[in-house]
User: What shape does this take?
Amino acid sequence: MILISANDLGRQFAGDPVFQGLRFEVRAGERIGLVGPNGAGKTTLMKLLSGDDQADYGHLYVRPGIKVSLLRQHPEFESGETLMSVARSGIASIVDLQHELEEAAQEIAEAEDDADRERATRRYTELHDRLEHQDAYSIDHRVEEVLTGLGFAPIDFPREASTFSGGQQSRLMLAKLLLEAPDVMLLDEPSNHLDIETTAWLESYLSRQAVAMVIVSHDRYFLDKVVTKIWELHEGKIDAYPGNYTQYWRLRSEKAKVLDRQAERQAEKIADLEAYIRKYGAGQRAKQAKDREKKLARIERVETMRDIVGPIMGFDEVERSGDIVVEARELSKAYDQSLFQRFNATILRGQCIGVLGPNGSGKSTLIKTLIGEVKPDSGEVRIGHKVHVGYHDQGLHSLAPETTVVRAVWPEDDPDWVQEDVRDLLARFGLSGDIVFQTVGQLSGGERAKAALARLCATNANLLVMDEPTNHLDIWSCEALERSILDFEGTVLVVSHDRYFLNQVADRIIVLGNGNARVVEGDYETYQRLAQRDAATTKSAAPSPAPSERTEAKVEKRKRKFPYRKTPDIEREIAEKEAVLAEFEDLLGQPATWRDPIKARETQLKHEDLKKELARLYEHWEEAVELNS
Assistant: This one.
């Protein structure tokens, strides 16, 4: 069932349109990931879908009677509103139905004749069925499940909502939206302000919901886990791809190759026609040349893929430090509770160290302690020979809001810099033109993040310390930052909840939690495997379940639907099928295909068969990942 559709949708502010001619559909149960570079119009499109903004042209159809809700990033709370009352306001419609049910029960009890009693009973039954359909009889459990899953403790429930931090308030608004369960859920960067554990809970929760979703996110792990379709918004147009982020990127790459090959063949054909026309245009074969001119005019030029180009970024060559960059011995730190105790680590030149852990576990405190900005309660830190520290703070406070961008990035203590050098640096990080003379406060979140990274580069530090540097960056800017870190000759210490990012750049991981910190040799996936192994070891060491418990576990264990196959074998077949599917999608997009009705129908049927085969392969792959040992 189509819930929302758009035809030639466009929105324009000053100057060129943000986007135009958009055509798309949102169907019941679809989970759509909306991706595109910063400034492409993703947030603008979300506001149009929610009704908070209006299109300048085109038509947006929203099915009558459905509810569309957008995640609010900057909430305002009434005085006296508690965390629990705000969360429960998401289920206000269910509470109203419960009150109506109570009224209907009262009407049955007070009915004066059979006709009134029958009418009240019918109303009671209808309301009861509606409440049962919405699982209303477990709402208290649902509210607590969502609040706990998003990192709130029972002690927080009666606390006034306005007293929480900005990040916690954003999580509260997410909880309210999840409990509201509208027909279409619009989520703009829902994993911002969430740690890895909470993000994993959200992934699992969203994947179980039957409502339609449009999700803007730069978290590639999150998109892989949750979405079933990708919309790419770029240069004012939307291209749709089936599957999650990884499948989208594979399909996009295959489609680009197919179109490039077609464009090359067409260019050769055009060159041959033009050569013939030049050679014989005025001679005895002028008639044939004229025919070729007409043929040339009728050729519909193949449009190759519109590349999304992220900023270059890149950190400059820096002075070589000593081999030991930071040495920590027996470090301990506590505020209200212990953050880490007797922590030991040696950071070597050229390494990239990732830091992860739940919110409040002390990640920022640890990195500030390691670079000497925070004094430990006990233990000592030694900074190595010729180590120069550059710090990127999570809140981007190094950039004064009232200062122009070019002045905010300009190194204060380096007389060799001139304005052109600073502008070149900013352009490298994706900021150019008049934007560099705006104040920092006028920039978007993504633009401020890029300016902060440019300032970090300008410090010429050989130890880059970054606290959540991918916040507000689009996917292509994240990839540029990953390349920059991998190419950097110095040392990097980075706090991040972006699992994909950590997996690309980290040589070692420092994990905080439960009042301790430990070092894991390897990237995020290595840490994940070790955590799973530790969990399995703990589980195997637990007492054996009672016979009734074993019976329940046996019943709950999933049975195989498909024959056993190795996961890599299925992945190879998926890649092959997706490549073929991309070719058929390309054929269906060519006018020539539709000139032959028989060929068009055959192509459509083959396309549908391939989609069904792929859907079955995805299901087989998921089963293999879950059940293969």
